Amino acid sequence: MKADLWRRWRAGESISVISGQIGKPPGSVFTVLKHHGGIAPEPRKERAGSLTMAEREEISRRLCAGDSYNAIAALLGRAVSTISREVNQNGGRGAYRATVAQERAFDRARRPKQCLLARRPSLRETVLALLKEEWSPEQIVGHLRLNHGDGPAMRVSHETIYRSVYVTRWKVVPRELSKRLRTSRPIRKNRRHTVKGQWRSQITDARPIEERPLAAEDRSEFGHLEGDLVIGSNNSQVATLVDRKSRFLTVVKLASRHTTVVVPALAEAYTRMDPRLHGTLTWDRGMELASHKRFTADSGVDVFFAAPRSP
């Protein structure tokens, strides 16, 4: 469940959409995101050269057959000390089990290394001082380059600073300093969580509003509709469709604001309209119509998008 949550968060889906897709309350989704500062935790990694599951299974079989550590090591191309340590750490010759040994190895796997600011106290103090002065991470990086050159001791990326602020479990930067950042957000968001970022990264082959027919622009024909998503209380939502000429309003109830729900609902609404009214649809700018090609294929109606941040 958490893997799906993080995958959707990285893709730019909102907390409410993620909530609906994974079947958890929005508050629960936010709690998980906030604990990690909105940054997906890195997976544990075993040391390079660690024994594989297949090797552990072979060790188990050879021990049952009564083979010596030397024989097992020669068969696997490993040092005798590696085999001896592996067996002794996991119950000895009589109790060794490959699956148990693999689970223990995973539990002992190295966590991601300590973050850069924790390893360099002088760099950390400089960054903290500038954050308290409400400098942005990008400004701090520029300041360090200007005053300390390319020396590695005082080199850091703006992303590392952001991570140090938001990932509270690192305990490197006081959490209250996140309020000094210009966004004042409690969790880290990437560009896909902004209207501009969504437009650029996810709505593919979007046709701009400037390309829609003149009849839609000057309201000379019926059937050219403008759509929008309206959010209500208790995580409810509806789509509104307004004919530009007649101003007739159609309301479509939605179970979710995700494009996989919105597109079929709109296509179904169009099947109940007079085909002569199937002109064009102009959508606000949200990701609800990210699957606009599917909508056009199902309804025969071309979709045009307003420019980002336009009213």
From TrEMBL:
One Gene Ontology term of the molecular function aspect: transposase activity
Keywords of the record: DNA recombination
Superkingdom of the organism of origin: Bacteria
Pfam families: HTH_38, rve
Gene Ontology cellular-component terms listed: cytosol
Family matches, as InterPro entries: Integrase_cat-core (IPR001584), IS30-like_HTH (IPR025246), RNaseH-like_sf (IPR012337), Transposase-Integrase (IPR051917), Transposase_IS30-like (IPR053392)
Domain Integrase catalytic: start-end pairs: 209-311
Entry keyword Disulfide bond: no
Protein name: IS30 family transposase
